[in-house]
# Entry
Amino acid sequence: MSLAHTAAEYMLSDALLPDRRGPRLKGLRLELPLDRIVKFVSVGSPLLLMSLAFAQEFSSGSPISCFSPSNFSIRQAAYVDSSCWDSLVHHEQDGPRQDKMKSLWPHKALPYSLLALALLMYLPVLLWQYAAVPALSSDLLFIISELDKSYNRSIRLVQHMLKIRQKSSDPYVFWDELEKARKERYFEFPLLERYLACKQRSHSLVATYLLRNSLLLLFTSTTYLYLGHFHLDVFFQEEFSCSIKTGLLSDETHVPNLITCRLTSLSIFRIVSLSSVAVYTILVPVIIYNLTRLCRWDKRLLSVYEMLPAFDLLSRKMLGCPINDLNVILLFLRANISELISFSWLSVLCVLKDTTTQKHNIDTVVDFMTLLAGLEPSKPKHLTNPACDEHP
# Structure
């Protein structure tokens, strides 16, 4: 008998989680995986395209090539290129004496507009970092620590029950005390459950998360409007007519009224425009999916931790509308599942509980570990009515 108890003690000792001391949870993820992807793509792609635009400008020299008159010298032709690039206005005859002008400034502003877009897309990230991350990190540290501690308390409780059963000479006294403890709910540690219930009535984290994704959608829509209104207007125009007859050259008869110029950087302009549309079109469904995840509970994670005493948010039907801070915390607990050491143990116990033949006697990890340790999870039938055993 002592050998069986020694084996049970070893099994329970191995089931205890290591105590975490020193640096606490260095690898805590404070951004969801999809949010991190959205951040890198939405901010990184404009910076990448901006570097492409600058690289093309530095490698090929002038972004335009003007067809100067043949009597112009090299310096005069260079002046024409410089002047037409500075003005970047297309002159078009709209009548006998009317000159219609069209600005091509999006070509000149391309790298700077991409930089502004990257900064704009980074604003929701800054909002999340400063408005939500401090509170979220403290919540996750406390909840992860308490979940693991609750599991360890359950294992230590079974160890204590095993020692009491060894020392107790009268099994009736032991089972009476055990049933009294269950009736008085001594095995339950309701601090964590009450804390999570309070988080259902809090909405600061979820409001910040909704604002972050809403701003991303708003800035993406603004990008579409900018590209559609300004880039599309000059997207197919490869050549333009430039006028340099200004200032001292306005009265020069040998200078033509209009000089034709070609945009040598048009291919880069088109690549940047199409790439921006494609990237943000792909990101929109991802952002919408992030928002829809707030409309449902992660019940699998909750069902696993239902094995802990006093953690019955599901069985008591305490979950209401999912748009609250608790749902956001559950999403981040799922993202930090590697930090929850107790999750793997409880997942295994849940699978074993579903396959055991005594499902009606097993509700928590205390009941299951009691059974594994060699104790009945409830009073044996031959001890339920000792008077009947003495007087059959």
Q: What stands out?
A: Residues 293 and 390 are 62 Å apart (CA to CA). Strands lie at 64-66, 89-93, 99-103, 239-242, 259-263. The radius of gyration is 36 Å.
